[in-house]
Amino acid sequence: MDGGYDTGLGEVMISTDVIEKCAGASAVECFGIVGMASKNVRDGLAKLLKRENLSNGVSAKVEDNKIKIDIHIIVSYGVNIPSVCDNLLENVKYKVEEFTGLKVEKINIFVEGVRVID
């Protein structure tokens, strides 16, 4: 379901695809995050997505104009995962709310893998 609001002159509807792309782009800006992950259901391996597929590691749902987001990430080896996730939560929440004008109710983060960066 898409979210939206009434402007007085008409309605503005925001697709969940747009929300997912915004959340994915905001996530990869955060320190310690190597990229978005997509679960390969066939063999259970987390796969690093290319930049053009950022929304594949994110799913968003809109209910009563409140957004719920699931983000699947791969982190850099040696980072403090709770600190990276706190930063990710704040960054994604701020940018999605600022971008859409809708309230983010919940963000679930799934750390799917760790990569060693040279």
Strand content: 35-45%
Q: Report the structural category.
A: alpha+beta
CATH topology annotation:
Alpha-Beta Plaits
Quaternary: single chain
List low-pLDDT spans: none
Distance between the termini: 41 Å
What's the shape? elongated
Total helical segments: 2
The percentage helix is: 25-40%
Q: What is the class in the CATH system?
A: Alpha Beta
Number of domains: 1
Largest sheet: 5 strands, mixed
Computed CA radius of gyration, to the nearest angstrom: 15 Å
* CATH architecture heading: 2-Layer Sandwich
Total number of β-strand segments? 7
CATH homologous superfamily identity? Cation efflux protein, cytoplasmic domain
Overall average residue pLDDT: 85
Please provide the ordered H/E string of secondary-structure elements. EEHEEEEHE
Features:
alpha+beta; elongated; about 120 residues; two-stranded antiparallel ribbon; Alpha-Beta Plaits; 7 strands
Describe the protein's architecture and organization.
With 118 residues, the protein is α+β, with helices and mostly antiparallel strands. The chain has a single domain (3-115), classed as Cation efflux protein, cytoplasmic domain (Alpha-Beta Plaits), CATH 3.30.70.1350. Helices cover 28% and strands 42% of the residues. It has helices at 16-28, 81-100; strands at 3-6, 11-14, 33-40, 45-48, 58-63, 66-76, 103-115. α2 (81-100) links the parallel β6 and β7. α1 (16-28) packs across α2. 31% of the residues are buried. The mean pLDDT is 85.
